[in-house]
Amino acid sequence: MDPLPDWLTATLASDATAGKGVVQPGLRPLERDWRIAAPAYVVQASPDDNQAVVTALASAPPGCVLVVSGHATSRTATIGDIMAAELAARGVVGLITDGLVRDAAEIRRIAFRVWCRGTTPTAPLKLSPGRVGGAIDIGGAFVREGDIVIATRRRRRRVATGADRGTAGKGKGSSGIRRGAAREDQAELTTIQGIAGSGNRRTWRPARMSASAMPSRRPSCVAK
Fold it and tell me: Quick one: 55 exposed, middle or buried, by C-beta within 10 A (0-12, 13-18, 19+)?
């Protein structure tokens, strides 16, 4: 898919889809400024075991983000630096996991973008096959293979231009996400400017998006 515009954030995508598909709080990027907007390749792993991630390594398509569920209670790592390097070498743009990772400093050094629950030095088992593909639940969000995942940390304010709004992406639902989020971005900026111009006396009213602009497949959002 074509890159989504750099002003698109998980916050705007959440607004554009009325908060549907947002992962519950708790997952954070290893590096504050990292950002992901890519189609999901989903993995259902078993607690304390990453054999399903090893299996996914062989089939994950370039340009995807690996989304791993099943590690919300794990005390071992979903991946470490070696697997991060292997995923990056295969063109995987990042990892979203409800579990932990290890070798965080090295993962930051190679700039493999990871959102996770935390870190641990403990290696996982490799016994349970788990499942690759289909659909998973991660942090209360239902994610299907090919769904667009938008993960951001810091909001960067920029006015959306007509060129940004008019460029269609090839990913599932990406053009709808662009249009809806661009409207939210412009409406929010206008509201903020109005508040500043009226001495903070303006009452905030959320912008609404038309049904025709809703993406055909709603994005999953990680906003921390």
Answer: middle
Query: pLDDT digits over 69-120, tens only?
Result: 999 999 999 999 999 999 999 999 999 999 999 999 999 999 999 999 999 9
| Residue 21, C-beta contacts closer than 8 angstroms, at least 6 positions apart | 14, 141, 142, 143, 147, 218, 219, 220, 221
**pLDDT, tens digit, for every residue of 166-203?**
222 233 455 555 555 445 445 545 544 454 555 544 44
Q: Which residue has the tokens 């997952």?
A: 27
Contact between residue 119 and residue 104 where contact means Cβ atoms under 8 Å apart? yes
Q: Are 93 and 37 in contact (CB under 8 A)?
A: no
Buried b (16+ CB within 10 A) or exposed e, 137-149: ebbebebbbbbbb
